[in-house]
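Closing statement on the zinc ion sub-project.
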Amino acid sequence: MERRYSQQQHTIKNALHCLDHPTAADVYGEVRKTLPSISLGTVYRNINRLVDDGVILRVSTPGEADRFDACVDEHIHVTCKRCGHVVDAEGEDVLSSLHELVEAIGATSGIRIDEYALSFSGLCSDCQESEEAAALQTKK
Ligand SMILES: [Zn+2]
Ligand SMILES: [Zn+2]
């Protein structure tokens, strides 16, 4: 059965496509430009429905607000702990190593793995630079 999307869901989906790994609050801010009377609760509900339908991905980072991704092709997320920027890691190298890892874990545990969540975090290149700059400042 084909699911029919409402005007609200279309607007929310479009907002997700424009934004880079937004939080629900970011999506709400964007959607309100088109639908000023929409509530945050409605945005949350629709986002959850889109996740359940597999139209968008939920990106969970421990201790941070969930982010969402309109790109559902397989890729890994790496989050900057300082500025919260989410970077996509994708490509043949990353994915083939990932599949090997999942296979090895499946073989060792005896569980046929059909779902996994990996979380990677650190400092993005911008934050590394500002950290180095700050370190130089304090040396002076
Ligand atoms: Zn950063
Ligand atoms: Zn992504």
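The mean pLDDT is 90. With this model delivered, the sub-project is considered complete and its resources will be redirected to Aim 3.
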